[in-house]
């Protein structure tokens, strides 16, 4: 259940060591030429020996959706790029050679539980997508230092302490939507001390309730331009959007809605009135129709002086939120 194991399994599924990728009779002379030139790729226009295929012909087999060697279902455009890289340079069919040159990695819904130190082999990795796995803790020391995008949507992350130990200094996007974060977020883990270059932050659909505490951390993120907090209880606070818009003057998009000049003017000064932030929400419930119970208004009137017993009805309606 480690990320390294999931990566190797994913690369095997792409068939990088099989035709039309990899090294075989279809490109043996080209591979031999690479070795004779000490790893340099032969230039274009080289004659293709009988019985072998040109790189162009092999690429066509990969790109044609009707080809038996087309990309397997569920793969990403990045997977297609990897296969084409291997066709052009067959030596990359070995994981030990391919992993150091990967720039984007997408491992989604593969049951990954641990981001292990094997990820450090991906020295040039800039984008890591690990959505819909089973990751509860992630140690930042196991992340490549050049990482710019980290997407962890749909996992089980409950705190950010391990992630903040040694975070990638160039990270620009951090996606933590649909996890288990709750207030208060300890140790100022969302400040510029840890994320000096963060441009985009997604904390949607967690259990965050402390709006004032969260904003006090986010105000230090001078490069933050995109913020998503919808789906948290704090988003029910009456002055939620206005307070954020005025507190984060460099923010451009909040909850997927662009912040315009008119909106900024409308909420100007609200950041200086924290007393308006009340950690409560008002819910109005309207009952349109109730079926299956007697209507008291249609009850027959008793005759004057009648000794018949009076029948009354009472109802209790319960709501669960």
Automatic annotation (TrEMBL):
<protein>
    <submittedName>
        <fullName>LRC43 protein</fullName>
    </submittedName>
</protein>
<keyword id="KW-0433">Leucine-rich repeat</keyword>
<dbReference type="GO" id="GO:0005737">
    <property type="term" value="C:cytoplasm"/>
</dbReference>
<dbReference type="InterPro" id="IPR001611">
    <property type="entry name" value="Leu-rich_rpt"/>
</dbReference>
<keyword id="KW-0677">Repeat</keyword>
<dbReference type="InterPro" id="IPR032675">
    <property type="entry name" value="LRR_dom_sf"/>
</dbReference>
């Amino acid at each position: 259940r480690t990320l390294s194991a999931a990566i190797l399994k994913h690369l095997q599924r792409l068939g990088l060591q099989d035709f039309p990728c990899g090294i075989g009779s279809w490109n043996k002379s080209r591979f031999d030429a690479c070795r004779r030139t000490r790893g340099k790729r032969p230039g274009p226009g080289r004659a293709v020996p009988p019985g072998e295929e040109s790189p162009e012909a092999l690429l066509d087999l990969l790109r044609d959706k009707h080809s038996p060697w087309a990309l397997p279902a569920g793969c990403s455009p990045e997977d297609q790029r990897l296969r084409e890289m291997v066709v052009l340079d067959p030596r990359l069919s070995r994981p030990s050679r391919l992993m150091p040159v990967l720039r984007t990695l997408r491992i989604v819904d593969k049951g990954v539980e641990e981001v292990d130190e094997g990820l450090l082999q991906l020295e040039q990795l800039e984008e890591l997508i690990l959505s819909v796995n089973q990751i509860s803790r992630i140690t930042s020391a196991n992340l490549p230092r050049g990482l710019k995008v980290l997407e962890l949507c749909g996992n089980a992350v409950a705190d950010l302490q391990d992630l903040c130990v040694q975070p990638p200094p160039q990270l620009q996007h951090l996606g933590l939507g649909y996890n288990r974060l709750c207030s208060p977020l300890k140790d100022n883990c969302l400040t510029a001390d840890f994320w000096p270059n963060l441009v985009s932050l997604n904390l949607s659909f967690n259990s965050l309730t402390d709006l004032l505490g969260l904003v006090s951390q986010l105000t230090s993120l001078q490069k933050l331009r995109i913020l998503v907090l919808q789906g948290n209880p704090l988003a029910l606070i009456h002055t939620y959007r206005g307070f954020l818009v005025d507190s984060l003057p460099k923010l451009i998009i909040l909850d997927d809605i662009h912040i315009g000049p008119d909106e900024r003017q409308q909420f100007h000064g609200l950041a200086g009135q924290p007393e308006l932030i009340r950690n409560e929400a008002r819910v109005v419930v309207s009952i349109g129709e109730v079926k299956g119970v007697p209507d008291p208004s249609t009850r027959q009137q008793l005759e004057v002086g009648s000794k018949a017993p009076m029948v009354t009805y009472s109802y209790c309606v319960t709501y669960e939120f």
